[in-house]
Design goal:
The complex is a heterodimer.
Chain A lengths: L6 H5 L1 H18 L6 H21 L8 E3 L4 E3 L1 H27 L5 H18 L4 H19 L6 H32 L4 H7 L9 H19 L7 H8 L2 H8 L1 H17 L4 H24 L4 H21 L3 H28 L15 H4 L1 H15 L5 H15 L3 H27 L14 H19 L2 H11 L8
Helix pairs in contact in A: 2-3, 2-5, 3-4, 3-5, 4-5, 4-11, 4-12, 4-15, 4-20, 4-21, 5-6, 5-12, 6-7, 7-9, 7-10, 8-12, 9-12, 9-13, 10-11, 10-14, 11-15, 12-15, 13-14, 13-19, 14-15, 14-18, 14-19, 15-17, 15-18, 15-20, 15-21, 17-19, 17-20, 18-19, 18-20
Chain B lengths: L3 H20 L1 H32 L6 E11 L2 E9 L1 H24 L6 H20 L3 H19 L6 H32 L4 H4 L2 H9 L1 E5 L2 E4 H16 L8 H4 L5 H10 L4 H8 L1 H4 L3 H24 L3 H21 L3 H28 L17 H15 L5 H15 L5 H27 L6 E2 L23 E2 L8 H27 L17 H6 L5 H9 L2 H19 L3 H8 L1 H8 L4 H48 L7 H25 L2
Parallel strand pairs in B: 5-6
Antiparallel strand pairs in B: 1-2, 3-4
Classes of the chains: A mainly alpha, B mainly alpha.
Chain lengths: 492, 684
């Protein structure tokens, strides 16, 4: 029997606050003239900041998991870390996008509201304790994302990308729901912890096959959201077609949420079947590494190249799951955070170079950047080196931790495959660096920078953070480790 | 108790100066760069003296703490920590004091150079790195400092990076040090592997020494080696590279391509002594292996004598001092080899003062001679530059070991310690260090006579007035005929002479105050550990006969080393002061010997032929065969062709058609379902 306990509201105070703030901003935005859109911008940032403070303030003690609404909603260490970084990267999206949107007449309230709703969806998703909450959070996120991709209504590429994203997303949602219904059929519950406790995977269980097929559908749903091959097809088209500001969001914050969802579903509910899903994820990981890295080489469009690079990074991320242990999840979480911060720099740089009528999304547009502006060429070089996993940058240690988890799991061949593909990946990242430093620019004029000083500062800091976190990665990894330290969230 | 804050300030003040002078060089300008680095090093130096005072007279205990944990993986932690005992404190004082002198001197020496700020940034960075090295409490940070000083040394040897010879020299220094560092790294790896920790206090502890003595490894079948021997020899190979011991000595003479201030700071007083310091710091380990110590002893003795001999035939004033440095480093190593660690470190300290003085004096001469370094075009300079002349005399007397001067106390102790030792190789070493005394006196006074005395062998050329003086002065060898000067030489400005005077003072007097406690008084406490087995603690044996410095000096007059040095002095005086022409006759009479020394035993040529050519040939082979053929041809082009084919065939999947995408997803789903079905039914 579901009972309403008013104290539960306090548990999800950050989410409720964000919801209230978003609705308020929605109302305020209605009364703003287009010239006053900055108000929405700053209010949205303030809402994110305040939500972040609430998340941080109410962070549960290490190992504690606070459940609300009969386990529908969980607040634990994992949720806290993921929410902090979801809010942080969404904040970066706002900060980086303002000039870009203004230059394309996209500086509208919808962008902010949809993003805020998507953020709310992501927060729900990573806190979900029930299949229904998972689905609710996911739909809130993806429906907002479809609309965001189509934000530039007049662009045929944008609309096409949005339609593809929508249709395939609907298909994936359908598959996910189908899997959920199978699992409900086998266990009679939607609660993740209860599924974990009830589900009988033993060889003579009558529901064994049903559960196994349900698991496959859950894996497919998660893989679609993450963009793992062969469920990655939407990714290059959406990355290229969407306005860069939206691509930045899809490529950073939503990946963090997708990681949270995957972990909740697979470890939370289906932890007992980890023998099966670790194998599946291993296959998906290798496929993603191969397809992502090989296809990225052939791209001339930087956004498309980064899309394939995302696929390869997802492959790496999935390797963290192969271990099926807390240290592996911590490595994967560390990885997804590092990826989100690196992607933010890369897409931020594209927006920095973009001007009205010029997208700067071809690799050739970065030619000779070092002559035009050595500082930002340096920032981009840091991002590329970090994505490639060159020490001592952030990306290197993220890869190292995942590889360590894989080797601890005894899967040496997986580690070797991952390293080989990482080396192949080096090629296309270094090509960007080469183009920036060794090619002659199309026009040798000094780079015209956007007027938004905040954008430039934060982007530079974001780039330097990749260096700083590469040197002092200890605390962040420690935080990730502590988030999973219990894993007693749902006892195995 | 030593304050953590003070220690941090000591290390970080020079780093701050280096960063400001380096990164903001255009903003702070020349004065700012010099000011901020000198202020940083001055602060560091003052606090180092404070730390030394606290440790010796203030009753402070040894400081050993980890300040920052870089990362912790399993049981292995990488920390930044300081171990400050008297050994460290002495090194800190020497490093910061000499560094301060060199900083001040640089204002004058580099006055016309375009890279003024860059130079200050480098030397301040060097000071930081060297402090990190000596203050470390673990092998990892030691290695960091070790590599960092190597890097700065590389940058400074090639400071005038437009000169091909400088580039050659810094590459050579870099490569030769690579060889040493490889050994060093192996040693550190061995320490971690066998002792399970990189922390000094644990490695020097009892459990580790048990492991070191009981575990053996067969490198060559049938010849078990103690772990202690392997580790110590590997670590010492690192010291051989850094402290330029035969056969890894070849880089040091070439490093004279760098500006003179760094020759004084890095290649005489501090960095090259890092190897000596390291072995002294590792004395608890080295004491476990008689074999390793014999190895150290023989290498050191060889270096002490044979590199000194080369110094006699050099004409470049800086190279004479450079070979003298090699020889003196050999003396220090010999001291380590006979377990007289305190003697080695003590000589390190006195040598730092007088050798820095000699280098800076040589630099002063070079400035006066408009960057002419060849002694054949000098002579009679004493009347032009009296301060340089006198301080150089004092430095040379200290170097030659004239009784009462700083070098006398340290060198005499080493020679006596070798005489006292019964270790394998000590007979050979005794001969080398004795003969070395004669050689030292010979080249020291030769340098003085050829530079400051006798006839002037240069012409002051009024025609050239204003011709080349304001040009970029460091590459004016080309347009100036040797021996022709545009101006008469003159004494250097006060920023150059002041450091000379300040360094001359300790070179003369420091022995009187320090010899008793530091050499024989167990001053270093637990920092240096010598086995108390019969006949091992040679300094302790000598110490029994030591009463006070005055007696040691008076005793010194009756001993063989004094008379040998005096003989060297007499011969030098006879040849180079009174009969300069006689050298030509010697040259032709001893033609083979001269040729051998002038070619430095052909070691450079050998390395060039074997290692450099061999390396290039190997590289070319790998390039043509391995890289171009196998990797480019098969792996890269082959896989590129493969990728092309794959992407051509698979491209239809990424066709842009929605139904293709959906189809791929469904295929993936079916494959996964099939896989699960297969696993469950065929392998339940």
């Amino acid at each position: 029997m579901i009972q309403f306990n008013p104290a539960d509201l306090a548990t999800m105070l950050p989410e409720l606050f964000l919801l209230g703030a978003t609705c308020t901003i929605l109302l305020i935005d209605l009364f703003l003239k287009p010239t006053q859109r900055d108000v929405t911008h700053w209010l949205s940032l303030a809402a994110l900041l305040a939500t972040g403070v609430l998340v941080w303030r109410d962070a549960p003690a290490q190992g504690a998991s606070i459940a609300a609404f009969n386990g529908m909603f969980l607040r634990d260490g994992v949720a806290t870390v993921l929410k902090v970084f979801v809010l942080l990267t969404t904040g970066l999206v706002f900060l980086y996008s303002r000039d870009y949107l203004r230059g394309r007449k996209l500086f509208v309230g919808e962008f902010y509201l949809l993003l805020l709703f998507a953020t709310l969806g992501m927060m729900l998703l990573v806190s979900a304790g029930n299949l229904v909450t998972v689905y609710l959070g996911l739909e809130l996120l993806t429906l907002s994302s479809y609309a965001l991709v189509a934000l530039n209504r007049d662009s045929a590429v944008s609309s096409e990308a949005a339609i593809k994203y929508f249709v395939l997303g609907a298909l994936a949602s359908g598959l996910l729901l189908y899997g959920m219904s199978m699992i409900y059929g086998a266990t009679g519950t939607l609660d993740l912890a209860k599924i974990h406790a009830i589900a009988d995977f033993s060889a003579n269980s009558p529901h064994r096959m049903l559960l196994a097929f349900g698991l496959v559908f859950l894996v497919v749903g998660s893989a679609f959201k993450l963009g793992a091959a062969p469920f990655h097809m939407w990714l290059p088209d959406v990355y290229q077609g969407a306005p860069t500001a939206v691509t930045l969001f899809v490529g950073s914050a939503s990946k963090i949420a997708a990681f949270g969802m995957t972990w909740r579903l697979l470890d939370g509910a289906m932890g007992g079947m980890h023998v099966h899903w670790t194998q599946m994820l291993g296959v998906l990981a290798v496929l993603s590494l191969a397809i992502g890295n090989v296809f990225a080489i052939a791209q001339t469009n930087l956004k498309r190249m980064l899309a394939y690079s995302t696929i390869s990074h997802v492959g790496f991320l999935l390797l963290g799951f192969v271990n099926g242990s807390a240290s592996g999840y911590a490595a994967a979480m560390f990885y997804v955070i590092s990826y989100a911060l690196m992607a933010a720099v890369a897409f931020g740089m594209i927006m920095l170079l973009a001007r009205a009528g010029f997208e700067a999304e071809e690799i050739d547009d970065f030619k000779g950047l070092n002559q035009r502006n050595p500082w930002y060429a340096g920032v981009m070089a840091i991002a590329m080196f970090s994505l490639a996993g060159v020490p001592p940058l952030f990306g290197f240690f993220a890869k190292l931790m995942v590889l360590k988890a894989v080797i601890d799991a005894g899967q040496m061949w997986l580690a070797i495959v991952a390293i080989v593909f990482a080396i192949i990946g080096l090629y296309y990242y270094l090509r960007v660096v080469k183009v920036m430093y060794f090619d002659e620019p199309h026009d040798a004029t000094v780079l015209e920078l956007p007027r938004d000083r905040g954008f430039r500062w934060v982007l530079s800091l974001n780039g330097l953070a990749l260096l700083a976190l590469g040197v002092a990665w200890g605390p962040l990894l420690d935080w990730c480790d502590r988030a999973f330290a219990v894993a007693a969230l749902i006892p195995r | 108790m030593l304050s953590k804050t003070i220690l941090l300030v000591i290390v970080l003040a020079p780093l701050f100066g280096a960063l400001v002078a380096g990164l903001l060089r255009n903003q702070v300008g020349r004065k700012g760069a010099a000011g901020v680095t000198i202020a940083g090093v001055l602060l560091s130096c003052a606090l180092s003296f404070h730390v030394l005072y606290q440790l010796v007279w203030g009753g402070a205990t040894t400081f050993n703490e980890n300040l920052y944990t870089w990362f912790q993986v399993g049981s292995f932690g990488a920390h930044v920590g300081f171990l400050v005992d008297r050994l460290t404190a002495m090194m800190m004082v020497v490093v910061t004091f000499v560094s301060l002198m060199v900083h001040v001197y640089t204002i004058g020496y580099m006055a016309d150079d375009d890279g003024f700020q860059r130079f200050f940034s480098y030397i301040a960075l060097f000071t930081f790195s060297m402090l990190m090295l000596v203050m470390s409490n673990n092998f990892l940070q030691l290695f960091f400092g070790w590599e960092a000083v190597g890097l700065v040394s590389y940058l400074l040897i090639g400071f005038w990076f437009k000169r091909p010879s400088a580039i050659f020299a810094n590459m050579k220094a870099f490569l030769v040090n690579r060889v040493g560092d490889f050994g060093f790294l192996l040693g550190i790896a061995g320490v971690l592997f066998w002792f399970g920790s990189l922390d000094y206090s644990q490695v020097f502890g009892a459990t580790a020494s048990d492991v070191a003595l009981t575990r053996t490894v067969e490198i060559f079948a049938g010849h078990p080696w103690h772990v202690a021997t392997i580790v110590c020899v590997c670590l010492f190979v690192g010291a051989m590279g850094k402290s330029a011991q035969v056969p890894l000595h070849v880089w040091l003479p070439d490093s004279m391509e760098g500006p003179t201030p760094i020759s004084a700071l890095i290649h005489a007083a501090t960095m090259v002594t890092a190897g000596i310091f390291m072995v002294a710091r590792m004395s608890p380990l080295f004491e476990l292996s008689e074999t390793a110590l014999s190895f150290v002893l023989v290498i050191g003795a060889t270096t002490a004598l044979f590199t000194g001999l080369i110094g006699i035939v050099q004409n470049d004033i800086k190279r004479v001092v450079a070979y003298s440095t090699l020889s003196q480093l050999g003396y220090m190593t010999v001291a380590l080899g006979v377990s007289a660690y305190a003697g080695g470190v003590y000589h390190l300290m006195t040598h730092a003062f007088f050798k820095a003085l000699l280098f800076l004096g040589a630099g002063s001469v070079i400035v006066a001679m408009h960057h002419e370094q060849d002694m054949r075009y000098m002579g009679g300079l004493r009347k032009y530059m009296p301060i340089t002349w006198i301080t150089m005399w004092l430095g040379s007397l200290a170097l030659a070991g004239a009784p009462g001067f700083a070098g006398f106390f340290s060198k005499d102790a080493i020679i006596e310690a070798v005489g006292e030792s019964h270790r394998w190789g000590s007979g050979y070493a005794y001969f080398c260090v004795m003969a070395g005394v004669f050689v030292t006196a010979l080249y020291s006074f030769r340098l003085l006579y050829k530079t400051f005395h006798g006839k002037e062998r240069f012409v002051v050329d009024a025609h050239h007035h204003g011709h080349g003086h304001h040009d970029d002065h460091h590459d004016d060898h080309g347009h100036q005929e040797p021996g022709h000067l545009a101006h008469a030489p003159h004494e250097s400005p006060w920023v150059i002479t002041l450091p000379l005077v300040l360094l001359a003072i300790p070179s003369v007097v420091i022995g009187w105050f320090t010899v008793g406690p530091m050499l024989f008084g167990g001053w270093f406490g637990g920092a240096i550990r010598v086995s108390q087995e019969e006949g091992r603690d040679v300094l302790g044996e000598i110490g029994k006969e030591f009463h006070d410095p005055l007696h040691m000096v008076l005793h010194g007059f009756t001993q063989a080393p004094f008379w040998i040095a005096f003989a060297g002095f007499a011969v030098a005086t006879w040849i180079w002061l009174f009969n300069p022409g006689v050298t030509e006759r010697f040259k032709s009479a001893l033609r083979p010997l001269y040729t051998m020394l002038n070619n430095k035993y052909w070691v450079d040529e050998l390395y060039q032929a074997v290692f450099a050519r061999g390396g290039i040939a190997l590289g070319r082979g790998l390039w043509k065969g391995g890289d171009a053929g196998l990797i480019d041809g098969v792996a890269v082009n082959g896989s590129a062709a493969l990728v092309d084919r794959v992407s051509a065939t698979v491209r239809w999947l990424q066709s842009g058609y929605l139904y293709h995408y959906a189809f791929a997803m469904i295929l993936g789903l079916i494959a996964l379902l099939g896989g699960v079905w297969w696993v469950n039914h065929l392998a339940p």
